[in-house]
Amino acid sequence: MEVARAAFAADGLDLPVREIARRAGMGTATVHRHFPSRADLIAAVLAEQVTRCEEEMRAALADPDPRRALRGTILRFAERQVRDRGLNEALLGSHAAGTAFAEKRRAHAEAFALLVERARRDGAVRRQVSVQDARVALRAIASFRALPAQSASAAIPRLTHLLLDGVLSEEQPR
C-alpha cells in the first residue's frame, strides 16, 4: 500500500500495477492476491488518503486555537497538493475513482466551513472573508497542481502564504 500510495501520488492513477509491483520488489500476482483489480488497489489507496484527511480535520476541529487550526488545515492542504498530486487529481478532480468519496468530500467541506466560522467568531479571520472566500483560496491552491511538478513545488507554498495573509487577520499580541 505504501509503495502504491507514493507511486500514484507522484505519477497518477494511470500507473500500471506491474510498475507498482516492480517498485515494491514483488510480482504482479502478489499484488493481485491482495487487490484483485487495479481499481481495488486505487480504491484502497484513496480510502487511506481520505481517512488521513478525516483524522486531520477532527484534530483541527478539536484544537482550541481557531487561528492555528485553520492555518494548519490550509497548510496541510497545500502540502498535499505538492506531495500527492495524482491522488488529489482523483479526489478533487474528475477521475472516476474519486466519485466514491463524494459524500466524504462534502463532510470535509462542512468541517472546513466550521473551522472558518469558528476562526471568524474568534477574530482570527478578516471580517470581510467568508467561508466561500476561504474555499476559493483552497481552489486556487489546488489549481496550481496542474503546473509541472517542479514549478508547483515552488509556487504552491508561496501562493499559500499569500492567501493566508489575505484570509487571516493580523495576529493579536498575547
UniProtKB/TrEMBL annotation:
Residues 16-35 bind DNA. Residues 1-53 form the HTH tetR-type domain. GO terms for molecular function: DNA-binding transcription factor activity; transcription cis-regulatory region binding. Keywords: DNA-binding, Transcription, Transcription regulation. Pfam families: TetR_C_43, TetR_N. The keyword Transcription applies. Gene3D superfamilies: Tetracycline Repressor, domain 2. SUPFAM superfamilies: Homeodomain-like (SSF46689), Tetracyclin repressor-like, C-terminal domain (SSF48498). The keyword S-adenosyl-L-methionine does not apply. PANTHER family: HTH-TYPE TRANSCRIPTIONAL REGULATOR BETI, HTH-TYPE TRANSCRIPTIONAL REGULATOR RUTR. This is TetR family transcriptional regulator. The lineage of its organism: Bacteria, Bacillati, Actinomycetota, Actinomycetes, Streptosporangiales.
